[in-house]
Amino acid sequence: MVPVPLPLPVAVIGAYLLGSVPVAVLVARAHGFDPRAVGDRNPGFWNMKERLGGRAAAPVFAGDMLKGALAALLALWASGGHTAGSGAVSGPSTVPVYLAVAAAMAGHAWPVFAGFRGGRSILTFAGGFAVVCPPAFLLGLAVLAGTALAARSFAIGARAGVFALPLLQLPFAPTAHVAGTGALMCLIGLRFGQAARTARRPS
What we know:
Blueprint: H1 8-19, H2 23-30, H3 45-52, H4 54-78, H5 94-109, H6 122-132, H7 134-151, H8 154-169, H9 175-200
Keywords: Acyltransferase, Cell membrane, Lipid biosynthesis, Lipid metabolism, Membrane, Phospholipid biosynthesis, Phospholipid metabolism, Transferase, Transmembrane, Transmembrane helix
Family: Belongs to the PlsY family.
Subcellular location: Cell membrane
């Protein structure tokens, strides 16, 4: 992969703007509603699935993951494309890619194109992690599928797959990288906490 003259701040800003594309809001608008005003008011896949069904909500699933993956790829390209034998990011590319994924997640959570009212960034994180550590991401998909079949619940499987990612990353990356993944997941926890506080406020 050939490096390009793209400064890190430009890559991070680009990642934030990618994350800010309000996929759920755009899809919901085509169906005549605002996901931030119905259900759990989260502009993400799960709320859209409850409103429209899995097939109609599939573009939200794909779009939110793609935002994270494209942000990570942008930073990987800009930083020279340094990866280990497993495909996991390494060396000088590590910090830029993690920063770009964080920026994309922040864009999804606080999107400049949608009044800074966004979602919880789970799928954007997952898409970014697919670039950060591809083998751990594939193992996470296996955990998701196995747990979903055992529990007969895709939602439970998805939670198991996401929460397993730091452990699954350990064989392929240094512990500092795993800590970085944990830090990204803290942003998801922050968004869930904010949503819980909002739900408790009197209307």
